[in-house]
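Q: What would this complex look like in 3D?
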Amino acid sequence: MTHVLELDSVDGGYGHAQVLHGIDLTVEEGHVAVVLGANGAGKTTTLRAICGVIRVRGGDIRFEGKSLVGKSPEEVSRLGIAHVPQGRGTFSELTVDENMRIGAINRKDKEVASDLERWYAAFPRLGERRKQEAGSMSGGEQQMLALARAMMARPRLLLLDEPSLGLAPLVTRELFAHLGDLNKEDGLSILVVEQNANLALDIGHWGYVLEAGRIAVQNTAHKLHDDEAVRKAYLGF
Amino acid sequence: MTTDQTGAAVEPMMGAAPLELEAEPEPGRQTLWPQIPRPVFIARVIIGTAMAAAALYAPFYFDPVYNRLLSQAIYLAIAAMGLNLLTGFNGQVSIGHGFFYGVGAFTSAILIVDHGWTFEATIPVALVLNGVIGLLIGLPALRVRGLYLALVTLGLAVLFPQLATKYVEGTGGVPLVRPRARDFSSLIAGLDDDQWAYFLSLAIMAVLFVLAWNLVRGRIGRSMIAVRDQEIAATTVGVNLAGTKVATFAISAAYAGVAGSLSVMVDHVAAATNPVFYFQRSVEFLVAMAIGGAATIMGPAVGALALVLLRRNTEDLIEGKEILAPALYGAALIAIVFVLPEGLVGGVRRFLAWLGRRSSAKGRPPTHPIPDDSQ
Amino acid sequence: MQLFVEQVLNGIANGVVYGSVALALVLIFRTTGVLNFAQGEMALFATFISWKLTQQGLPVVGAIAISMAIAFVSGAVIERVLIRPVESARSPLNVVIVTLGLFLALNSLVQLIFGTDPQFMPSAFPSGGIELFTSNGRTATLQKGTLGLVLVLIAECLVLWFMLNRTKLGLKLRAVAANPQSARLHGIKAGSMLMLGWALSAAIGALAGSLVAAQRTGFDSNLMQTVLVYALAAAALGGFDSLWGAVICGIIVGVADALTIQYIDPLNGIEVVLPLALILVVLVVSPHGLFGKRTVERV
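A: Here is my prediction, written as structure tokens for the whole assembly.
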């Protein structure tokens, strides 16, 4: 199994504060890696470091063997990584259809139209609202849109930052079902950061628990799911 | 989240320095001196005393021309402070406070010339009149958000000279009222006229600044800031949105009115012959506030002084090419914003904060603020 | 009736001027979120450049085209060098100050470089007017120059609308305006799009300035200052959202202004009350302007 993403002793942070201390993390090709941790542990910061939104101060990040350190978010995106940020990154003033097309904006092939139909079929609610202003949709719908938009770029690695935030349980279940399908059917590699451990670990292969900017525990998703001690100690439930 | 030009949600103004160096006193316990790190407190006391001493001694040291310049800085500071309350602390952007300034100036001038009032008695009139007008304008302003408010107020500033031309009959049929120098003679024996003008202005500025300081630190001030930063949330904790906004508008208008009134004493004229004059004044108030540091107390004063000195110095700089002066002025404004995005006071605070971090770093491990992961 | 039509035509003639500057203002606002107070002076500078070129013997159309190209590049440079560094430093006020500083600097530079004497700008359109109708011995004429300006504006709106709404580039521009962070995560170079927004507005402003200057009997460094206020009013009236709205509202403001001068005596001398009152009334009734889109704010 090759590593599609590799973080090697990564240090990073904001301004004077160092948030990440020597993070070692890998995502295997075709696998779902889950990063768990309480608020403030550094989960979002990790994703931002991968995408070049914040500067990496030490260590290396490699995507398919190539280093990402020092690259801008635009460059990282063009390499084949799609990032669904917290807050979903919706282009509120634009229509659903325009949002989707933005996902495919850098593609040069001719299959954009067929991909659109594919994702509208996979997310029927989006299909119904193509001309609707994206900002007027509910949180769950915007999250689906964010996911579909990310997929329009045909990424080889999908990053998701707390996709369940602010969503009703039923919607969250649906969302993770979609993610699971994408991984099983398309072989998409996924790195998902979550506070909602259960659903994430259910579709995951490998899990990391982040605490105060360090990897505290890592194990197969299955084992983490069942490990009560870990859950009580690091995840608070 | 604050609202930006169109009222859409955006990051709060960072130029609005969030009193970061002071710990909030517990609710119900209003301390006079909030807890600040020691070295910062000492630095502030020293700076404050030095500035006060300099301010008091200045008019005896400088000549009347320079004193006049300083007095201009003072009334500019008052107007900037008023705008600061409205824009810096309450988030309503106005580029038309020149309107209230103009009303104040003409009120004083006309009362003196046509009705024989003593100057000092006209100041409260200017204050109250503008407060009322500000109230009246603040009401419809409630319906106009952000960017549009800025534009409407711009219109006011452009309107004023036209109004003055229409309704004021000054010397020679032009909107110009020129009281005599005698009307402003010093009320204190031993003080020259220009020194008297300086001290009167300074005293009024001190009073108004202290009032503003109290306002900001009190409950009303918190309401203002709450309205600026998160309108919807503010209403859920019982802040009277409309009341706060209108009241702030009225107060800021009153301050600008006083500034206008004082300007008559300092410059001996109230004029509206230049159609863009009151627009320029409005811009100056805004710039003084921003350069000094929005949502700070000393900011407007520092900014006003910087602005007046800048204007004076760029005028002197190139002889024979006075045309170039606005270009240099404009370039200098841009440069200041580049170098000190939080304004002068903000820059000083950052420096003091850095000092504070250095000194505590020696004793114990520094506490790094870990940003909330949900950012 | 005769007088009314004449005033309306006058109003339209002025209105297209306001509309063309409003177009540039709205374009830059829609693509970068900045209200550029220096728009008028940037246009002024470009106008003087095209005037100078006509002095050197270039045909008017060529001179204007070159000045537009220069403005295009300058707009991009200004965004990169003056606006972007300040914008990332948090306070929206700072950007306003920079544009104001630019306003002052450009106006004074124009006087320094090109002098303060009024100059004459040749028109790109044939002179003369089109007679509409005659009554009471007076003829209402529509100036060919005005008609030309209207046609140019319509063309501009069409081209811009097409670019913004039907091309990939336009989508990128609007994406950056809507959510710059998210746009970057999708591989869109936000910085380049911002520069493009400024460049386009500057070019449009340059075109507006040159055509407007030709409409007058003479122009100097004061050309754009009153125009700016009315253009801002027109843009606000249109909601800062819609390109067509800016142009149409420009004409509305122009016509309303002309009619006010003619018919409403008490407002004699303070006509600027009118655009103000218009804005207030419209905004009270419809907070997003006449043509603005209602954006739903979810808490």
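A: To summarize the key features: Residues 169-186 of chain A form the longest helix (18 residues). Chain A has a mean pLDDT of 89.
Q: Very helpful, thank you.
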